[in-house]
Amino acid sequence: RGRGCRRSSRAAAAAAAAMFADSAGPAADVQSVWRSARSAGCKAKSCQTGTISTADVAVQSHISRDAGVQTDQSKDDVQDFQQEVEVDYSSLLSFLQRVENVVIKELNKNWKSRAFDGFEVSWTDQNETVLCLHTLSYPEAQDQKLQVTSVSWNATGSVVACSYGRLDDGDWSTESSYVCTWNLDRRGLNPQRPDLVVDVPSSVMCLAFHPSQPSLIAGGLFSGELVVWDTSRAEDPVVWRTGMTDDTHTDPVYQVNWLPDAQRRNHCQLLSVSTDGKILVWREERDGRLVLGEGFAIVAQQIPRSAQLKKFAWREAAVGVTSLSFSPFDPRVFVVGVEGGCSLKCSTATQTPALQHTGTSVPLMAPAELVFAPHGGPVYSVSCSPFHRQNLFLSCGTDGRVHVHSMLQTQPLVSLQLSKKYLFCVRWSPVRPLVFAAASGEGNCNNCFWFAGDVHLLDFERSWQKPAVSIKQSAAGSPVYCLEFNTKQTQLLAAGDAAGTIKVWQLSSDFTEQGPREMNHLEQLASETT
Questions:
Q1: pTM reported for the whole predicted model
Q2: Domain boundaries, position 433
Q3: Which residues lie in coiled coils (predicted)?
Q4: Is 184 within the bounds of a domain?
Q5: C-beta atoms surrounding 463 within 10 Å
Q6: What's 151's domain CATH number?
Q7: Is residue 27, in this structure, part of any structural domain at all?
Q8: Which residues, 6 or more positions from 101, have their beta carbon under 8 angstroms from its beta carbon?
Q9: Using one digit for the tens of pLDDT, what is the confidence trace for 366-416?
Q10: 169-181 residues labelled b (16+ CB within 10 A) or e (exposed)
Q11: Does residue 77 sit within a domain?
């Protein structure tokens, strides 16, 4: 039995070995099902947008329609208008024949009339009043009771300057004073805080801005010196000065003028006048000095006598000069006002040496050529006309009168009583040939029809006898010592008074627009003889 069991187990093992033996069969190929399923679900996409559809559309309407602003006529009106008007021609002819002579006569009269000669329509707005634009002052100067002695506009017309000092102090004064400037075009203008304040050790009696350099201003002092300041230099504004030399004036300087320098192109010289009788011309030096270039002296013995002025007795001494004005048409001719009450026509071309004047570095000449009829007191201001070639000029003084003179005759063409007190300044308008302004002292004129003590504007187109407008400068009636027209902004007029105030007035268009026949009227005035 045991052998039989072993045989059967061996047979089973052999059968099993035959069943699991190594063998090489053909290769099997199995396809991936999940890849094919995934690729079937994919879609092709791009990162760019698809094509954008566009269309052109006009912004204007392509349909237009005309519409009338007037109402349409009715059909009945059109028919009535289109109907022929019946005219009685025989009656019309008879009427024209009756009035023919009368109409022709009136037409001839109108043709010869000059009532509308030169008439021009003005399309600009008319300013009918005179307004105060600015009231300027420097409180520190007013605290010292200083007066405005002079005003001046710079070359651009935007800056106004004033000098502070005293005109009513007869004694020698060593009191300090100020020169102040205001830019009227500056935003935030403070009328009581000047843009520039220059401290000056002596009273400043007069000022004059340079004609082309807006920052340069010259001043004449009570001490007789001349100083030129540069207002663009706040720290040290003094650029030239005369100092106290043998050439310096010995009396206060009452006027300074800038003159073209004939020897140096684009340069100016300074001219000064003083009550010491001298008229001096100064030139600038590089070291900051003003050096005397030439000079003139008014001496009583050398003033031409006039047969019409025999009653006027000259003192045998130097004649104090108070004011000066050059002719705009002849740079050699100028007019001076003197303390003796006369105005004198003078010339820089004189070759006559002046008497009794020695000690200066250059010889002084005697310029006087003609003496005009005197005022009743010292002459304080003269002003030559900028319009007339025969050299009309104005003068005013302590007698309260304004004289209108021609340099061709000694007697005035016109004499106007504007005040019973002093007239301190007179200026011809730069734009109106028949307009001028005068500054007066306080008080009422008993023989006048206006208040005397302020700024008077006279227009000879309106009246030959009284001012067109009298402007009240201050409520207290302080004397007005100085005034100046603005040649750039011609509607502006600046005036300074004894209270230390400067007022800038805006003139009405009546005083700034020249009339069509105004020059003809000026010619008629100049051709008159007394």
A1: 0.73
A2: 146-527
A3: none
A4: yes
A5: 11
A6: 2.130.10.10
A7: no
A8: none
A9: 999 999 999 988 999 999 999 877 679 999 999 999 999 998 889 999 999
A10: eeeeeeeebbbbb
A11: no
